[in-house]
Specification:
This protein is of the alpha/beta class and about 200 residues long. It has five helices and seven strands. The longest helix is centred in the C-terminal third of the chain and has 19 residues. It has one domain: Maf protein. About 30% of the residues lie in helices and about 25% in strands. It comes from Dehalobacter restrictus (strain DSM 9455 / PER-K23). It is an enzyme of class 3 (hydrolase). It catalyses: dITP + H2O = dIMP + diphosphate + H(+); ITP + H2O = IMP + diphosphate + H(+); XTP + H2O = XMP + diphosphate + H(+).
Length: about 200
C-alpha cells in the first residue's frame, strides 16, 4: 500500500516511516511525482494551507495523501510570525535573517512575556474525498540569543523550560519524540492505519 506525503523533505518521510513502522506501507514523496507543480499556500491558517497542499497532491497522486503546515507563534507578537514563519524576514527564505528579525521585534520584551509555541497542522485526504486533520504543538519561550547548533529554523532561540534546553540542543531522537510535527504525525498514525484497511 502506498501513501503520499506532500513534501520534498526526506527527513519528514523518514519520520513518518518510523512512526508507522509498517512494512506493508510505502511512503512516497512529491519527488515521486516528477510532473507535480507545487501550489500556492494561500490559506490564512496552518490547517488551510495543509489542506491546500494535500488536496492538490492527492489529485495528482490518486492515493491517500498527507500534508503538513507548521510554524512559530509568539504571544507578544499577536501570534506572528505564524503562517509566515519561513519567510518572516522576506524572500528568499533565510533562517538567520528570520531569527534576527524575531529578536529585533522582541527587544525589550521581558522573559515572562516571551512565551511561544511551534504548531503543526497535518491534513489527510483520501481519493474518495474523505478529509481529516490532526494537530500538534509544543510550548516554549523565545530567548534573547541563540543556543545550540542542531535543528533548523527558530530552534536555537526556542527554549523548552521543562528540559532546560533549546530545540537546537536536542538530539534528533529527542526532537522526533516531542516536536509539534511528531505530535501531529503520531495522532495521524491510528487514523491512517484504519484508513488503510478500508482501501
Amino acid at each position: 500500500m502506498q501513501v503520499l506525503l506532500a513534501t520534498m523533505n526526506k527527513g519528514k518521510v523518514m519520520e513518518l516511516e518510523e512512526l508507522l513502522n509498517d512494512e506493508k506501507i510505502e511512503i512516497l514523496s512529491l519527488s515521486d511525482l516528477p510532473n507535480y507543480q507545487e501550489v500556492e499556500e494561500s490559506g490564512s491558517t496552518f490547517a488551510e494551507n495543509a489542506f491546500i497542499k494535500a488536496r492538490a497532491a492527492c489529485a495528482a497522486g490518486k492515493m491517500i495523501t498527507l500534508a503538513d503546515d507548521s510554524g512559530l507563534e509568539v504571544d507578544a507578537l499577536a501570534g506572528a510570525p505564524g503562517i509566515f514563519s519561513a519567510r518572516y524576514a522576506g524572500e528568499p527564505k533565510n533562517d538567520e535573517h528570520n531569527i534576527e528579525k524575531l529578536l529585533t521585534d522582541l527587544e525589550g520584551v521581558p522573559e515572562e512575556n516571551r512565551t511561544a509555541r511551534f504548531r503543526c497542522a497535518l491534513a489527510i485526504i483520501c481519493p474518495d474525498g474523505q478529509e481529516y486533520l490532526t494537530e500538534g504543538s509544543v510550548e516554549g519561550r523565545i530567548l534573547t540569543e541563540r543556543i545550540g547548533t542542531g535543528g533548523f529554523g527558530y530552534d536555537p532561540v526556542f527554549y523548552l523550560p521543562d528540559l532546560q534546553k533549546t530545540m537546537a540542543e536536542l538530539s534528533l531522537d529527542e526532537k522526533n519524540c516531542l516536536s509539534h510535527r511528531a505530535r501531529a504525525f503520531a495522532k495521524a498514525v491510528p487514523l491512517l492505519t484504519a484508513l488503510m484497511k478500508s482501501f
